[in-house]
Design goal:
The protein is mainly alpha-helical and 312 residues long. The chain has two domains: 101 residues, CBS-domain (Roll); 168 residues, Tetracycline Repressor, domain 2. The protein contains twelve helices and six strands. Strands 1-2-3 form a three-stranded mixed sheet. Strand 5 and strand 6 form a beta hairpin. Helix 9 crosses helix 12 and helix 10 packs antiparallel against helix 11. The N and C termini lie far apart (65 Å).
Length: 312
């Protein structure tokens, strides 16, 4: 947060502001906006520096300022501050305390730096690497042991999950022996679970980070509608495609029903997992990594083989 920022009073004229800028400009950290405050230093409005020189010199700040303020609190997450600037197309975000007292601004340079670092941090979390301070720099400079320690735990968890998945397949090997072609669709089932889960999870985690007061009821209702539409369309398509390839309506039905329930399962996990982690005060971005992938893979296989055991 930059503290040395041009502030003016409600009754200051445009001419007064011009004089102030000429005298103080070298001391300011940013002059993209002029911030208008009252006698208690409570933020009341803002004037763009671009508009300042188009205004009549005898006008008062209170007459020309914009009262539609986009602000951040002192403890607002830095990523949310940066995204606010992008959403509202403004170069700086003013910071106020709980009483509205002006504290400073987050400048465009800081916003760009935050976006860069947060983007790298989110990318690292999505592949199971977290708890690295200043991740944008340190992950590149970290030695082999540090990188090993950050990457190995999730990969070991993924390996264990893979073994559980293999055990699941083994329990249903008699069905695969009877209809060996069913084994060919295992990668398809797993892929659909991961693809749909990743889509849903990425959008949900982003919504949680952008909207701290997200209306979960409304969001989940909308997501249910989307998921059921996806599940029906992809399930029917899988049934038709499976029936053609396998030359069997019953086996095509197995594939279609499996895809239908797999999509519903993957979307449910994609919403519930980040929500649970968020309630536990754990960064929900962790849910988009190998942890969620392992859960989806195992459950998708279980769904597939349960459908096979019922219909074949």
């Amino acid at each position: 947060m930059a503290i040395n920022i041009p502030t003016v009073g409600l009754n200051d004229t445009i001419q007064d502001i011009h004089k102030q800028l000429k005298i103080q400009v070298k001391n300011y950290e940013s002059i993209g906006y002029i911030y208008v405050v009252n006698k208690k230093n409570i933020l009341r409005g803002v004037i763009s520096i671009k508009e300042l020189y188009c205004l009549d010199s005898d006008k008062k700040a209170s007459q020309v300022m914009s009262r539609e303020l986009i602000t951040a609190k002192l403890h607002t997450d830095q990523e949310r501050v940066a995204l606010l600037a992008i959403q509202h197309n403004i170069k700086s975000i003013p910071v106020i305390d709980p009483n509205g007292v002006f504290q400073g601004v987050v400048t465009s340079d800081t916003i760009l730096n935050v976006l860069h670092n947060e983007s790298i941090e989110d990318t690292l979390k999505s592949v199971g690497i977290s708890n690295i301070n200043n991740s944008a720099i340190n992950i590149l400079k970290a030695n082999a042991i540090t990188q090993f320690n950050k990457r190995a735990p999730w990969l070991l968890g993924g390996l264990l999950g893979g073994l559980v998945a293999a055990y699941t397949v083994r329990q249903f090997e008699s069905y695969l022996e009877a209809q060996i072609l069913l084994a060919a669709f295992i990668p398809t089932i797993v892929y659909m679970a991961d693809a749909v889960g990743s889509q849903t999870q990425t959008i949900f985690i982003r919504s949680l980070s952008l909207q701290h007061k997200l209306n979960l009821g409304k969001y989940i209702t909308r997501e249910i509608n989307i998921v059921f539409l996806l599940a029906i369309v992809l399930g029917v398509f899988s049934y038709i495609l499976g029936a053609i390839i396998l030359q069997s309506l019953s086996l095509g039905l197995v594939l279609g029903i499996s895809i239908f329930f797999t999509i519903i399962m993957a979307s449910t996990i994609a919403v519930l997992l980040p929500l649970i982690l968020s309630k536990l005060k754990i960064d929900p971005a962790i849910a988009s990594g190998p942890f969620a992938t392992v859960i989806r893979d195992i459950l998708s296989l279980l769904i597939y083989f349960l459908v096979i055991s019922v219909l074949v």
